[in-house]
Write a structure and sequence with these properties.
Layout (H helix, E strand, L loop, with lengths): L7 H8 L6 H14 L10 E5 L6 H16 L4 E5 L6 H8 L7 E6 H10 L11 E16 L8 H10 L5 E4 L5 H13 L4 E4 L3 H9 L5 E5 H9 L4 E5 L25 E9 L4 H15 L2 H9 L3 E2 L4 H22 L5
Parallel strand pairs: 1-2, 1-3, 5-6, 5-7
Antiparallel strand pairs: 3-9, 4-7, 4-8, 4-9, 4-10
Helix pairs in contact: 3-10, 5-12, 7-12
Length: 338
């Protein structure tokens, strides 16, 4: 067995420069990788499953991260959008996959904190069949309306909806999506009544909102800022504790008279529970490396998103906190599966 304390120069001297075979070099590299605590990952393309159609915040966050990781990994990280069923089919597939780090899934508030409460039997346990790898980003929730709605700000909007209960429709990326939860939370806090129209992703929901077929919507900044800036949508409030640098004139829900209200969207990476701890750490470290790139830090900063990249234990604790928070909202709003 190779002495792991040897340097590469020592190995070359002992074996002889001209006599080094490909297998000897490979053995040396493997030994040095093990010595450094590294894991040989990936060994083939990585499937990163996103349980929504393209075009929404989840797709933007995951695709941006995957693109950056692909730049320095030996194999690409490939996004696969598998929408439908509230994300349950996609989660089922990953739960049954090999824990070799080559099949991952994007986890979010709906799949990790809400689906366990509204689905009787998904065929998996989010806390037992998956291991949190790392949080990718926390994204501010924005509340927007179509410009045809006769309200110039959040206070006027609440008053208008209360005068016209059930007249307005709001869309979402689907049942138990982050936007659905944010709007139901807002309805509970303000006493408004609007009808929920679920879509198969943020993209289709935005299409109908921009056309005026629905009147209100909530999503993360990446999916909405461009439409706010070009005047096609009107931002009336944010779900963050403080106003956003990108939208300094838009008040928070909390400062508009609903103290304590806070709603943010979040996205992270999960792996099958059988994934070894050292491999989970390796994937987390590579994600953190990607999240530090200027491409991501600059983009996320422009959209007021908080960059993640922390250890698995930190993400696990955050998920547990979110499960407690949204349990009350789900019960009070009587959220049911499609």
């Amino acid at each position: 067995m190779m002495d792991l304390n040897l340097s590469r120069r020592d190995v070359l001297k002992q074996v002889g420069l001209g006599a080094i075979s490909a297998s000897a070099v490979a053995s040396f590299q493997e030994a040095m990788a093990q010595t450094a605590g590294n894991v040989n990952w990936p060994q083939k393309p990585v499937r990163f499953i996103v349980p929504f159609v393209p075009g929404g915040t989840s797709d933007i966050v995951s695709r941006t991260t995957a693109n950056e990781m692909t730049k320095f990994l030996p194999y690409p990280v490939v996004i696969e959008n598998k929408a439908g069923g509230g994300g349950v089919p996609a989660m089922q597939e990953v739960a049954r996959s090999a824990g070799d780090g080559h099949t991952l899934i994007m986890g979010h508030v709906g799949s990790m904190a809400v689906n366990p409460l509204i689905f009787q039997n998904t065929g998996y346990d989010v806390n037992k069949d998956f291991v949190p790898v790392t949080l990718l980003a926390k994204v501010p929730s924005l509340f927007v309306i179509h410009p045809d709605v006769p309200a110039k700000n959040f206070t006027e909007f609440v008053a208008y909806v209360k005068r016209n209960p059930g007249k307005l429709n709001y869309g979402s990326a689907g049942n138990a999506s982050a936007g659905h939860l944010a709007m139901e939370y807002l309805k509970l806090a303000t006493g408004m009544y609007m009808t929920h129209i679920p879509y198969r992703g943020t993209g289709p929901a935005l299409t109908d909102l921009l056309a005026g077929r629905t009147q209100a919507f909530s999503a993360g900044t990446p999916a909405l800022l461009q439409y706010i800036r070009n005047g096609r949508l009107r931002a009336i409030a944010t779900g963050t504790p403080k106003r956003l640098p990108s939208l300094p004139d838009v008040p928070t829900v909390a400062e508009s008279g609903y103290k304590g209200f806070e709603s943010v969207q979040w996205y992270g990476i999960l792996a099958p529970a059988s994934t070894p701890a050292d491999l989970v750490k390796k994937i987390q470290e590579e994600c953190a490396r990607a999240l530090k790139s200027p491409v991501i830090t600059d983009r996320f900063a422009s959209e007021d998103a908080v960059v993640g990249g922390g250890p698995s234990s930190e993400f696990a604790a955050f998920i547990a906190q979110q499960q407690v928070l949204w349990k009350d909202v789900v019960a009070r709003a009587n959220i049911k599966p499609d």
